[in-house]
Write a structure and sequence with these properties.
Elements (H helix, E strand, L loop, with lengths): L2 H14 L5 H8 L3 H13 L3 E4 L7 E4 L11 H13 L3 E2 L2 H14 L2 H12 L11 E2 H13 L3 E6 L6 E14 L2 E8 L6 E4 L3 E6 L13 H11 L4 E7 L3 H7 L6 E5 L2 E8 L2 H11 L3 E5 L1 H17 L1
Parallel strand pairs: 3-4
Antiparallel strand pairs: 1-2, 5-6, 5-9, 6-7, 7-8, 10-12, 10-13, 11-12
Length: 312
């Protein structure tokens, strides 16, 4: 093993095994302890901040520093980073940064990995049907608040309002669903958790404190999906489906509707402001079903059927 390769391997061991001793490094690399310590000293000269703890249980660990030396990533880790950069276009303001970062990553990885990165770069995504994208000036401070458990004041616009109103919340978790970002947070003095779409937030202010909040949802992603399916919609829909719940779950996204088991059959529960949309969606499922409520949905299904007969 060359000196350069050995020092790169030393760096990889330090990253993978914080607290590893000089004796353990030497044994893994097949060198003397003196050589292992010399390699660590060389890495420090390159800018890596490597702390050392004395004693029998002491060892080396990499500490965060002011500079960013080269990272050691394996093929799967490089692919994961590239996929994350591809997903960054869902955040307004990160489009150009994600593109240039992926280009830089492609330049520095070993040649044998560039094929997979080029393949990822060639993947095309359909154009956005709307401008519903979270802004980086919102996403970053919200993410930091979630990590620190710090309350924030956000200016949020409800789906049925054109104006944004301030609200103070205790944040819990960020969730991404269908390329949209959502914040699970508890408004001050309400004792409940709500879901906020980040694209409807235009300002975030840290408050430097923490609000009392109830026990958070065990599964934040499931909580968001359930909220989207059963949120503050004008119409609550129940549909009886004459087939197994397992089959229906394969067809229905949990953020659109909830499937409720009932023996050999099941029910679909969902909410919407648009019964015509609900009629079209249920028709698309191509399932044998009956409307339980509301009765107006049956009228919309009949009207859709008549239109289809007249048209085709």
């Amino acid at each position: 093993m060359s000196t350069t390769n050995r020092r790169l391997e030393t760096l990889a061991l330090l990253q993978a095994h914080p607290g590893i001793s000089a004796t353990q490094l030497a044994a893994r690399l097949g060198v003397t302890e003196r050589t292992a310590r010399r390699d660590v000293a060389h890495l420090r000269e390159l800018g890596y901040q490597i702390d050392a703890e004395a004693g029998r249980t002491g060892g080396y660990r990499i500490a965060p520093g002011r500079t960013m030396p080269p990272l050691l990533l394996d093929a799967d880790e490089v692919t994961a980073v590239a996929l994350g950069l591809r997903a960054a276009v869902a955040v307004e303001g990160f489009d150009a940064a994600a593109t240039t970062a992926l280009a830089k990553l492609t330049q520095v990885v070993p040649a044998r990995w560039r094929t997979r990165l080029s393949a990822l770069a060639d993947v095309q995504t359909p154009p956005e049907r709307s401008r519903r994208r979270a802004g980086r000036d919102v996403l970053v401070p919200v993410a930091l608040a979630c990590r620190a458990g710090e309350a924030i004041r956000v200016r949020h616009r409800r789906h049925d309002s054109a104006r944004a109103a301030p609200v103070e919340v205790q944040p819990h978790r960020l969730v991404t669903l269908h390329r949209h970002w959502y914040l699970v947070a508890s408004p001050r003095d309400t004792g409940r958790w709500l879901t906020y779409a980040l694209d409807r937030i235009d300002h975030v202010q840290p408050l430097g404190t923490r609000f009392p909040a109830p026990e958070p949802p065990a599964d934040a992603a499931a909580f968001v999906a359930d909220t989207l399916a059963h949120g503050p919609w004008r119409h609550r829909i129940r549909v009886r489906v004459h087939t197994s719940a397992d089959l229906v779950r394969d067809l229905v996204d949990p953020s659109v509707a909830t499937v409720v088991d009932d023996g050999d059959e099941c029910e679909l529960h969902l909410g919407t402001d648009d019964l015509d949309w609900a009629a079209r969606w249920l028709t698309y499922l191509n399932l044998d079903l009956d409307v339980v409520e509301p009765a107006a949905l049956t009228d919309r299904l009949r009207a859709l059927g008549r239109w289809l007969l007249d048209r085709y």
